[in-house]
Automatic annotation (TrEMBL):
Keyword annotations of the record: Calcium, Glycoprotein, Hydrolase, Membrane, Metal-binding, Transmembrane, Transmembrane helix
Name of the protein: Sulfatase N-terminal domain-containing protein
UniProt source species: Chilo suppressalis
UniProt xrefs under PROSITE patterns: SULFATASE_2
Transmembrane stretches, start-end: 21-40
């Protein structure tokens, strides 16, 4: 086809072979050059800059999405995103919120920026160092309109730490770890007693006029950003939900009553409310995908859905999330704390599959930059996994490190092996949540849930039917650790000189310590960890609550207290 314009020369060439053969070849060469130049222009930088939407769930457990096997909590929109795109089977994060979000924004392990350990409190003067260039700053420089809806939690004590000072054009959300789903207040236990303040901001102003269930507020904000977006510009929307994090003491689980009522198949009263919170989150994903479709930009958008860390089935900040059958909770380096829900979808480039290569939260910065045609920075820990993920290739990430010098543990994953050293709180280190999975009567139909979901119908309308065979993924995860009897297990707990080594491919539920049988592997992994430990920016071993941050000084808001003169 491309040579048709050269046929004139070709015909003459047949009559006068010597003279015109040269011209025919020259003509072909010129044509190919023109085509190359044209296609570079079409596929070049500007047109590659797709919109990016990152949706982050807060403390959503491994077993809290239906694509991982649960019949209790239906998440057809989140699942469909993965079925149409890529379900990440081995997606790892840090095991705590502030560290995970720091790694997402910087592309670096949290312990290299001093953001590891116990999450930021509202009364703490600390933030992600402003010397770090973060994802929204990269994207803003590239001409993106940048918006953050929802949780920040990497610094609010000074104005320079706030999202609007760090690359986001607009902000609507809570700055700290969590708030009440209706009042947007956050309570902390101080030595003087309970301290409470409002934490919902529009740009840098307290958003006193808002009302409604916070997941709805965040969804409406995201939709309004999408609707009013100038489509000639690329869009970066980061949507960091409060859900399904716990609220304040006394009201830790909150969802609209009619949604809770629709969860009457859930036996555990707490899980019933939790399931409703997750349904609202899942509906939000459907609404956002629908808004992108109605705006006509869905097919030019990359959508990433991730959880920030594992669920908190019991203990501090319990939300009755479920990581079962994975071992351990949030705040532990066991799989339940760090192996989390992840899915990515990107237009027609991806043929749907499950990706089993390692992906870490720090990989998104370089991966997304690559996806829009930019060279990622090289002074980071994250790997550009774009090609690996979309083409289902072996992951170039060979290892995953978790270091918390505050809690005093380290974990190191390499290949099939995972080593844990130091001390991990034992009350969060076992297999929890099996007893919370009861269902009254028959569970809801998964097929109906998928077919009735917004994401399914939006994709169907766009000619991308989600095939039911894709739900093989769900069944695979259901049998993640088929043979177990957790009650009888002698689980390995690190500490007092004991290190635990697991083969997380064969034993993803971390039941069998194989350290003694593999002294060489243990030695090599400890050596690697000791090198990595030299990169740690030390974290003070204290939970700070500065009296001057008291919301009473700031009209009962949690404010950037270092810069603000109290009213
Ligand atoms: C937030 O800041 C952006 C950018 O300066 C501005 O366009 C927008 O109007 C602000 N929103 C509010 C409510 O002040
Ligand atoms: C706050 O203190 C109360 C009473 O001492 C306790 O029951 C509760 O668990 C504490 N909450 C948190 C989040 O530490
Ligand atoms: C993307 O969707 C828009 C609106 O639905 C449509 O006009 C356009 O042709 C689509 N582009 C591609 C590459 O499918
Ligand atoms: C993706 O790669 C894995 C591991 O190599 C393989 O088992 C799987 O079949 C591949 N999936 C697809 C859709 O090619
Ligand atoms: C370490 O030793 C202390 C004191 O003997 C004990 O309380 C703790 O349970 C031990 N930890 C482990 C992991 O064995
Ligand atoms: C102070 O708080 C009240 C709500 O308690 C709010 O209505 C008012 O607008 C706030 N004042 C300022 C100056 O922000």
């Amino acid at each position: 086809m491309s040579s048709s314009g050269c046929n004139y020369f070709y015909r003459i060439h047949r009559k006068h072979p010597k003279r015109m053969g040269f011209l025919y070849i020259l003509c072909i060469l010129l044509l190919s050059l023109t085509i190359t130049v044209l296609s570079v222009k079409v596929n070049g930088k500007n047109d590659n800059r797709r919109h990016i939407v990152i949706i982050i769930a807060d403390d959503l457990g491994w077993n809290d999405v239906s694509s991982h096997g649960t019949d209790q909590v239906m998440t057809p929109n989140i699942d469909s995103l993965g079925y149409a795109g890529v379900t990440l089977g081995r997606y790892y994060s840090h095991c705590i919120c502030t560290p995970s979000r720091s790694a997402l924004l910087t592309g670096k392990y949290a312990y290299t920026t001093g953001m590891q350990g116990y999450p930021l409190t509202n009364g703490e003067d600390r933030g992600l160092p402003t010397t770090e260039k973060i994802l929204p700053q990269y994207l803003k420089e590239l001409g993106y309109a940048t918006h953050l809806v929802g949780k920040w939690h990497v610094g609010g004590s000074r104005e320079k730490y706030l999202p609007t000072k760090r690359g986001f054009d607009t902000y609507f959300g809570h700055r700290g770890g969590f708030v009440d789903y209706y009042e947007y207040t956050s309570e902390e236990n101080w030595s003087i007693g309970k301290v409470s303040g409002m934490d919902l901001y529009r740009n840098e102003t307290a958003a006193w006029d808002e009302e409604g269930y916070i997941t709805d507020l965040y969804t409406e904000e995201a939709i309004s950003i999408i609707n009013s977006h100038d489509a000639s510009k690329p869009l970066f929307l980061m949507m960091a939900h409060l859900a399904p994090h716990s609220g304040n003491d006394g009201a830790i689980l909150q969802a609209p009553p009619e949604v809770v009522r629709s969860m009457r198949h859930v036996e555990s009263p707490e899980r019933r409310i939790f399931a409703a919170m997750v349904k609202k989150l899942d509906d939000s994903v459907g609404d956002v995908v629908e808004a992108l479709s109605e705006k006509g930009i869905l097919n030019k958008t990359i959508i990433l859905f991730i959880s920030d860390n594992g669920g908190m089935t019991s203990g501090d900040s319990v939300n009755y999330a479920n990581n079962y059958p994975l071992r351990g909770l949030k705040m532990t380096p066991f799989e339940g704390g760090i192996r989390v829900v992840g899915a990515i979808w990107a237009s027609d480039e991806i043929t749907s599959h499950q990706y089993d290569g390692y992906v870490h939260v720090s990989d998104w910065l370089p991966t997304l930059l690559k996806a829009i045609g930019e060279e990622p920075p090289n002074n980071i820990d994250g790997h550009d996994l774009w090609a690996n993920i979309i083409m289902n290739q072996t992951s170039s990430r060979a290892e995953i490190v978790e270091i918390d010098d505050m809690a005093g543990y380290q974990s190191y994953i390499h290949g099939d092996f995972k080593l844990i050293t130091g001390h991990v709180d034992q009350k969060y280190s076992n297999h929890q949540g099996k007893d919370l999975l009861g269902i009254i009567g028959k569970p809801p139909s998964y097929t109906d849930a998928i077919v009735n979901s917004k994401v399914y119908s939006v994709f169907k309308k766009a000619g991308r039917t989600i095939h039911f065979e894709d739900m093989v993924i769900r069944n695979r995860f259901k049998d993640l650790c088929p043979k177990h009897d957790d009650e009888d297990d002698e689980l390995c707990h690190p500490g007092n000189g004991t290190v635990c080594l697991f083969n997380i491919k064969n034993d993803p539920c971390e039941r069998k310590n194989i350290a003694e049988a593999n002294p060489y592997i243990v030695k090599t992994m400890i050596e690697r960890l000791s090198i990595e430990k030299k990169r740690v920016i030390p974290r003070a071993n204290s939970i700070v609550r500065e009296p001057r941050a008291n919301p009473a000084f700031f009209n009962y808001t949690w404010h950037s207290f270092v810069d603000q003169v109290s009213s």
